[in-house]
Specification:
There is one protein chain. Helix content is about 20%, strand content about 30%. By secondary structure, the protein is α+β, with helices and mostly antiparallel strands. The chain has one domain: GTP cyclohydrolase I, C-terminal domain/NADPH-dependent 7-cyano-7-deazaguanine reductase, N-terminal domain (GTP Cyclohydrolase I, domain 2, 2-Layer Sandwich), CATH 3.30.1130.10.
Length: about 140
């Protein structure tokens, strides 16, 4: 199975990402998971429409203004808000909510989200899920 390239000049895509956010989360299906927050790690990879990538390689650099790009700070803030919003039973549900939030920006073509529980098994670094959602 081939993974789509997230940054690709031929497709007019740039890669915006947030790496290894470690947050406390109320997450899990078991009763003991409702009592104490668990550490999770979240990674966000976005394929974002990049008009500049389709221009000639000698085209001028775009405006140096935050409004012309997807703000990774805003993405990180949205992840924090979603995680803090309340108990979620499944890491899959949390990943889907984060992807849905990212896709509200029409420049985002696809969102690849990984959510990992960090302290779930003594003999494993993490367990979790990675999903990818595309704009329809």
């Amino acid at each position: 199975m081939e993974t789509q390239r997230i940054a690709d000049a031929a497709l007019g895509l740039r890669h915006v990402f947030v790496r290894d956010m470690v947050l406390p989360a109320s997450i899990g299906v078991y009763p003991q998971e409702h009592d104490t927050p668990q550490r999770i790690r979240v990674n966000v990879d976005l394929a974002v429409a990049d008009d500049g990538a389709l221009a000639l390689s000698r085209a001028p650099v775009g405006r140096d203004e935050l409004s012309r790009v997807v703000d990774y700070g805003a993405v990180a803030d949205a992840v924090r808000r979603i995680v803090a919003a309340g108990h979620v039973r499944l890491v899959e549900t949390l990943a889907e909510r984060i992807a849905e939030s990212c896709l509200t920006d029409e420049r985002v073509v696809s969102a690849r989200i990984r959510v990992e529980k960090l302290d779930i098994f003594a003999d494993a670094t993490s367990a979790g899920v990675e999903i990818e959602r595309r704009r329809r």
